[in-house]
Design brief:
It is a single chain. Strand 7 and strand 8 form a beta hairpin. This protein has two domains: 123 residues, no CATH class; 96 residues, Immunoglobulin-like, CATH 2.60.40. The termini are far apart. It is built from no helices and 16 strands. The strands form five sheets. Strands 4-1-7-8 form a four-stranded mixed sheet, with no helix packed on it. It is globular and about 60 Å long.
């Protein structure tokens, strides 16, 4: 993938911040998309689903307050797929706790994770990433509104230090570190498009993934590109979400 063939990426993510060691090379830490960019307490309801890329054994679930002074709710941290349940919170800054907090006690425990979701986001996917201390999580909030992330779309998230190049069915682009980009897919249902992923090093592009993507308007995908320290290489992971399955009480 020659450098000249890759246009400048379209920025759809947020400002870089810190990311835990598990998803970064050479000690470079950052967080992207939404965390750290929202006001401390922003009014307005937000719905969210969850995914944990590697849960700690002693915290397979977390707890949060859906609104101030309300009883806490348990949140599952699935690792294979998005949570089946959709959660709701009144505020866009959401602390998560290892055990159920008691708002009547007057003092809440120290949170193990805090999601900061921009006020513009009303539907989110919260990605929980393990911090290096083995006790806390950092949270990435991905906008999951169907108007901006529709069925059939592929959303690529670059969690590495280097630019990531994408070649999807002949459409090419690049994503800077700490950014994300959505690729709409056009074509007949069940068509299979070639997907190749590259990382840039020393002005050259190196392929690290080659697969095929099926055109399916019922499914949208989040593709995470990250550095795996165990394998000492950049890897990718796709998360599927079916958009034709109605939520409880909704009409399909």
């Amino acid at each position: 993938m020659p450098k000249a063939s890759v246009p400048e990426p379209r920025r759809t993510g947020g400002k870089p911040a810190r990311l835990p060691w598990f998803f970064q090379p050479l000690g470079f830490l950052f967080l992207l998309i939404a965390a750290g960019s929202a006001p401390a307490q922003e009014e307005g309801s937000v719905h969210f689903r969850t995914l944990c890329l590697r849960a700690f054994a002693d915290t397979p679930t977390l707890h949060y307050l859906p609104a101030p002074k309300q009883a806490s709710l348990e949140v599952e941290l699935p690792e294979a797929n998005l949570s089946a349940k959709r959660y709701q919170a009144k505020l866009h800054t959401i602390p998560f706790y290892a055990s159920a907090p008691d708002p009547a006690a007057g003092k809440l425990p120290e949170p193990v994770a805090i999601a900061r979701i921009p006020a513009s986001i009303k539907q989110a996917v919260l990605l929980f990433l393990p911090a290096s201390d083995g006790k806390r999580y950092q949270v990435i909030a991905v906008d999951a509104d169907l108007l901006s992330f529709r069925g059939g779309d592929q959303r690529f998230v670059n969690l590495t230090k280097v630019p990531i190049g994408i070649d999807l069915g002949g459409t090419r682009s690049a994503i800077k570190s700490g950014d994300s980009q959505t690729f709409p897919i056009s074509g007949d249902a069940n068509d299979r498009l070639a997907l190749q992923l590259f990382y840039q090093q020393d002005e050259s592009w190196h392929r690290f993934s080659s697969t095929r993507v099926t055109v399916d308007p019922r499914i949208r995908r989040i593709i995470l590109c990250y550095y795996n320290p165990a394998e000492k290489r950049i890897c990718s992971r796709a998360i599927w979400d079916r958009v034709d399955t109605p939520e409880p009480g909704e009409t399909p």
